[in-house]
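Input for the complex:
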Amino acid sequence: EAQVTQNPRYLITVTGKKLTVTCSQNMNHEYMSWYRQDPGLGLRQIYYSMNVEVTDKGDVPEGYKVSRKEKRNFPLILESPSPNQTSLYFCASSLTQGGTEAFFGQGTRLTVV
Amino acid sequence: GNSVTQMEGPVTLSEEAFLTINCTYTATGYPSLFWYVQYPGEGLQLLLKATKADDKGSNKGFEATYRKETTSFHLEKGSVQVSDSAVYFCALIYNNAGNMLTFGGGTRLMVKP
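Predicted:
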């Protein structure tokens, strides 16, 4: 089954404690990205990757890092989380061609206290 | 830059009512347009798409037509069901933006029996 898998689904952490949210896809997609979803703001892109070892900033990259060492994995790293990073996070993947469908993970609800 | 504006919710309808969710966009050139649906506790799923002017996307009784002259992509359904209750997101991809989806703020639809 084609899918994007994120872990964990829920996470509560404290300010400043480094965390990683994992994302894996089994569709051999080149393009992967991270979004955060906040009420009234829709989804905003944090980082994206066009292929292995190629990453770039989206609209709201501050406070986040990513890596793309393998095609299937695209972890999101928060080196020093802050309360304003409390949000619902989604990983997505797609083929590189424009206009193709993006597949989304089930989301990670992060709370930073 | 690119942007998507959709009507704010929540939209509350009775079963079998007609649904319209408005979506307009601002983009340079000719983006591809999408509607995604998010059911409670789940990630986003592609509902329908249109890749060029006058194209009509359709799926599960939902339709939307790519109107270049009014830069719109309104979502419609002739008879909604309780199971259609979800959050609906209008989105665009402008190919020169690296496959980045630009989302509207989302519209929550609640259908009552």
